[in-house]
Amino acid sequence: MVQNNLDSADNSPDELARDGELYRLQGEYDLASEKFNDAIKLNPSYAWANAHLGETFRQRGSKANSPETFFTQSENFFKQATKLNSDYAWAHAHLGELYRENLKYEEAEESFKQAIMIDENYAWAYAHRGANSYDRENLNDALHYLTKALDIIPTYAWAKLYQAIVWLRTKEFEKAVLAFLSVISLDPNVIKNPSKDIALLSIDARELETALALFDKALNETPNDIETQYHHAVVIAKLKGLEAAKEEIQKLRQVLESSTSITLQDLSKDYILGGLAALEGNNRQAQEKLAIFDNAPKLKAKAERDLAWQPLLKQ
Questions:
Q1: In this structure, how many other beta carbons lie within 10 angstroms of the beta carbon of residue 112?
Q2: SS3 call for 39
Q3: Inter-axis angle of helices 226-240 and 208-221, to 10 degrees?
Q4: Separation between Cα atoms, residue 191 and residue 63, nearest integer Å
Q5: pTM of this prediction?
Q6: What is the C-alpha to C-alpha distance for residues 300 and 294, in angstroms, rounded to an integer?
Q7: How far apart are CA 71 and CA 67, in angstroms?
Q8: What is the distance in angstroms between the CA of the first residue and the CA of the last residue of the chain?
Q9: pLDDT digits (tens, 9 = 90+) for 64-95
Q10: Hey, is 127 helix, strand or coil?
Q11: 292-to-135, 267, 269 alpha-carbon distances in Å
Q12: Number of Cβ atoms within 10 Å of the Cβ of 211
């Protein structure tokens, strides 16, 4: 791979770490890891390089099918950074996000709390602590921390998005809609697939009519998105009965079983086939797919909120 002339002629720890950060920001994680490691070899007490190497592994994990593969490495470097500099708020906060992404909510709470104790105006830490509270179903705490983040940075689109999600869950729909519109105007990249993403949130709020209308819109925008087709079929089955979704389910199953090159972002082929089987009441066939959750806690967390999988997982 061409290294884009980022490498510095000066091989000091600071210059190596700077090059590593440039690679990290470009998504060149292997090269970033190499540079940060070289900086740490020259200066083992370099807290900044340890923290950013931890963040490199966290980002690699968040984009991988098996994020736990990179978890231990990321955790170790973040902990080393905070050991070297106990007042390093950024390292504490990003360690918290590593824990949150890997569903370790108690550990995440402690890390975010530590970051905020060090820097009481750390909007990012407040926002992600709010997201962690949302994940733990502590909606009042979530709203408190997200509001605090927005008090510090009123244009913080990511925090505004989670604030909208909380209001959707608490059925404050007018506030939620205004907040979603505000997010799109502040930063349209925060919500990658607005119709689909807000439809999924509407399912969490048990607003299935709203979810169906949004999935209809999403399918007009991206008609070949298999994950949207799956969620659309599930909502139709729950709203109108299984027979109303039968044709859509059959087409979806045919595509999944006949194609070897299917692109999926959040789910998996076995997840969708198992969900369809559970939706149809074929629990034996669905149970054959349960092994997909053994090393995929994020996927299981999605299934626990999925109207198709929920009945089977609660047994």
A1: 29
A2: helix
A3: 150
A4: 17
A5: 0.73
A6: 8
A7: 7
A8: 51
A9: 655 567 899 999 999 999 999 999 999 999 99
A10: helix
A11: 22, 11, 10
A12: 26
